[in-house]
Amino acid sequence: MKKAKEKPHYVDNKKFLEAMIEHRDKCEKAEKQNKKKPEVTNYIGECFLKIANHLSYRPNFINYTFRDDMISDGIENCLQYMNNFNPEKSKNPFAYFTQIIYYAFIRRIQKEKKQIQIKSKLIANAGVENMMDQLQGDDQQYQSQLLDYLQKNLKE
To answer: Which of 2, 40, 74, 85 could disulfide-link 52, Cβ–Cβ 3.0 to 4.6 Å?
Structure first.
């Protein structure tokens, strides 16, 4: 029988659950012995990365220029909240971390939209005319067209 091709973004939920339980046990042992928490295994890190990468290709996230920042935020939140995952309550770590990453993406989009609004307000308050005064020579003919375009878009 042929073995199915392994997909690049596929996360095996059973293996992921076993790795999470094993990591949780190591953390509990370290806490009892007053040692620092163990590092996250490569497998768990790869799972976070695969989930975040694949989620970033969904239609509602794919066209953002700051997709890498979204992925980084998602992974960071997974690492931050991974100790909150309780295998006694849920046997589905994939869904748990997908939700964490999803909401990290939403927060990043909201932050970036605020920054874009701030930038456009700064441009509007600074006056486009002042920025256009720097153009000289052959660029003069395009100055009025560009000025009209910018003013029209800033009003919208």
So the answer is: 74
Pair of tokens at residue 70: 């979204």
Distance between CA atoms of 18 and 92, rounded to whole angstroms? 11
- By CB atoms closer than 10 A (0-12, 13-18, 19+), residue 88 is exposed
- Tokens 């046990």 belong to residue: 25
d(Cα 74, Cα 107) in Å, to the nearest integer?
Answer: 10
pTM for the full model? 0.75
Instruction: Spell out the domain ranges in the chain.
Output: 13-112
Whole-number pLDDT of residue 79? 94
Based on the number of CB atoms within 10 Å of its own CB, is 104 exposed (0-12), middle (13-18) or buried (19 or more)?
Answer: buried
Q: Considering only residues 132 and 58, tell me which one the structure prediction assigns the higher pLDDT.
A: 58
